[in-house]
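Hey, I was hoping to borrow your eyes for a little while. For a while now I've been wondering how a particular protein folds. The fold is given in discrete form, as structure tokens running alongside the sequence. Could you read through the record and tell me how the tokens relate to the sequence? Take your time with it, there's no hurry, and the full record follows here:
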Amino acid sequence: MKKLELNTKFILPPNLDRKAGFEFEYSNVKLPIVASAFYKEYGGIIEMINPYYYKLKNSRVGDFKFIIDAQFLVNSKLQDLVKKIGIEEFLPIDFIQKIEEFIALVGENLVPYEVTTPPIAFKDINEAQNIKEILRKLGAHGTKKSLLYAFGMHINIEAKSLDIKSILSDLRSYFTLYEFIYEWLKPDLTRRVSPYINPFDTEYILLILDKSYNPTMSEFIDDYITYNPTRNRSLDLLPLLTWIDEQRVRAKLPDEKISKRPTYHYRLPDSRVDEKDWCVCDGFNSWMLVELLSKDSKSLDNLSQVALKYYSSSPLSILFKDELLEEINRWVESL
């Protein structure tokens, strides 16, 4: 399978002012050590929100966040709960903190630490690789270090347009290329069986690939949430859709934790921060391939029909997988 040497350098679109933020999940290195290393590299001001949440503000590339990926620790929810039910006089703050420390210690091999980067302009995108190297040199562990790890590298890629036709075209392209990209990135087995990058339902994929599907933005948002009332998709559109129409999304998903932003939240790539030869560009470029097909309307029309044949043949779709991959590979070789 040709990869266009995509594992060695970043492939970029014409507009280099667009931005992408990265979330690297990892283990084995405590938050204060990581925050200090990033301060040394990028400058700024370290701020400790609590022992499980640090910030690096005003660095030369923007603001970083360093957390343990457990919201009840990051947001001091245990302390809030104790106050809410009115038993703080029986559970002093230092005792609650000991409980939090114990929970963090027990969950250390299951709950990852996470570095969230500022949005990085495409012209400076090599900083993402530098950030990965900082973590590697500190001794961070990545996805493949343990069978228990389901660590991801999430990419928040600024949408090239908020127009419904552009978003629909990008999603059609993603569904068309999904099997190709999946074979390319080969997500770790633990991540495959975890719920974090669940594939889209075939029924929804068929809806999107249908050339007659021409929704308004409101209709598109309603359909998306009907089929995907969760953030646990390999490509999470909820942040983008909330940015476009927050009231509509939150009315339908009042309890879902969604950070609105004008980006695609691409969750499929592993976080292989401990591997010297692994390039962040591998995951980034897999999305750039989606954008390349999205703007090639003739190829998208042709390949999406092959993909439609593949998905609509379920449960015998495996018989048509090679045909789909071969057609995509021919298109890739033509680039």
Notes: The longest helix spans residues 164-185. The longest strand covers residues 19-26. DSSP finds 14 helices and nine strands in the chain. The radius of gyration is 21 Å.
